[in-house]
Design a protein that fits this description.
Blueprint: H1 2-11, H2 13-22, H3 39-43, H4 48-59, H5 67-74
Helix pairs in contact: 1-2, 4-5
Protein name: Transcriptional regulator ArgR
């Protein structure tokens, strides 16, 4: 976002737009906009157990949990 904002400011919106196309960026966001798409949109689901499991995995990137541990935390079976 910063790169695109600087390009737009210094070299014009046309160049910034071309670079964003190459980077597969949907659009240039304003400074106060969220960078990440909400989790439910990223998952394509608003199922609470799935959301809870993904949040748990994201919170444990450095030391990943096993599927059994994740299932236990969200109160589902490993195969659900």
């Amino acid at each position: 976002d910063l790169l695109l904002a600087v390009l737009s400011r210094d070299h014009g919106a046309e160049l910034a737009g071309a670079v964003s196309e190459e980077l597969v960026v949907e659009r240039i966001r304003e400074g106060g906009e969220r960078q990440r798409i909400p989790l439910q949109n990223r998952l394509g689901s608003s199922h609470p157990k799935l959301t809870q499991a993904v949040l748990l995995m994201e919170a444990n990137i450095e030391e990943p949990l096993t599927t059994d541990e994740i299932a236990q935390h969200v109160c589902v079976s490993r195969r659900q």
